[in-house]
Amino acid sequence: MRLQTIFGLIIMTAAMSACGQNQSAAPNPALLYTDSTRTEERELNDPERTTIWDVFNRGNAEQIVNVNRYLWAASLDVLNFLPIQEVDPFTGVIVTGYGTPPGGGRSYRATVHISDPALAARSLSVALQSSGGAPVSAATARAVEDAILNRARQLRIADNKL
């Protein structure tokens, strides 16, 4: 059994090393005279070329989503009674902990996602969860979204007066 494991590791190592690229600083001038070498160089320098390692790349790590600053500030303002757990302005996500709204009896937590720089309803998504596991009505979630949108409009109007 141990011999089979070692043999399998050797085969996997050989297969993975065959997937590597030759990234030497300068090409060998003696090899540039054959057509097959030129074709191989063009394939290696092709910007649309993919390798097995592309499976492990998760895209551009520096990708930033532009969020509307009025929606962002309004979300924090309207949901100020909830403790904030995570805030990521680069992806537009606000995650809160459980809290009870003023005058309410049930505690909620919210996840807000702002996906667009436009001050529009399509840019805002609010997900509510209750602590007791009871479903949160769509009307409640819609009321929170409406409150955030109204506050964002107020902030924009106040900003334009300056």
From TrEMBL:
<feature type="signal peptide">
    <location>
        <begin position="1"/>
        <end position="20"/>
    </location>
</feature>
<keyword id="KW-0732">Signal</keyword>
<dbReference type="Pfam" id="PF12100">
    <property type="entry name" value="DUF3576"/>
</dbReference>
<dbReference type="InterPro" id="IPR021959">
    <property type="entry name" value="DUF3576"/>
</dbReference>
<protein>
    <recommendedName>
        <fullName>DUF3576 domain-containing protein</fullName>
    </recommendedName>
</protein>
